[in-house]
Specification:
The protein is mainly alpha-helical and 107 residues long. The protein is 69% helix and 0% strand.
């Protein structure tokens, strides 16, 4: 017998997988709005936990969203390699390193 909570988890997972499928099309504005609404706080939060100021964390989040948009057409979700959220966290951390945002700059 399936509980309501188990059903909700399966529906949520299916919805997220369908969202990942929908954002493969860059022109799908509704899907991208939902994607940003869903994952912005995760990306921003990872950047803030790295002690970035608010505006730097927002810039990193924007860069990560742009990077994800560029990768989604070929992206293949494979749960055995980790969760999608873990992939986003990794992109955020590596994005910080590439951008140099938040690093102290010499005068």
């Amino acid at each position: 017998m399936t509980t309501g909570a188990e059903t909700d988890v399966r529906i949520t997972n299916a919805t997220r997988l369908s969202l990942l499928s929908q954002v493969r099309t860059l022109s799908n504005d509704n899907a991208w709005k939902e994607f940003v609404d869903t994952y912005w706080s995760l990306i921003y939060g990872v950047a803030r936990k790295s002690r970035l100021e608010h505006h730097d964390a927002e810039e990193i989040a924007q860069e990560v969203i742009i990077e994800v948009a560029g990768k989604m057409k070929e992206f293949r979700y494979d749960r055995s390699k980790g969760s999608f959220r873990a992939w986003l966290r990794n992109l955020t951390r590596t994005g910080q390193g590439r951008s140099g945002i938040g690093r102290s700059r010499a005068p």
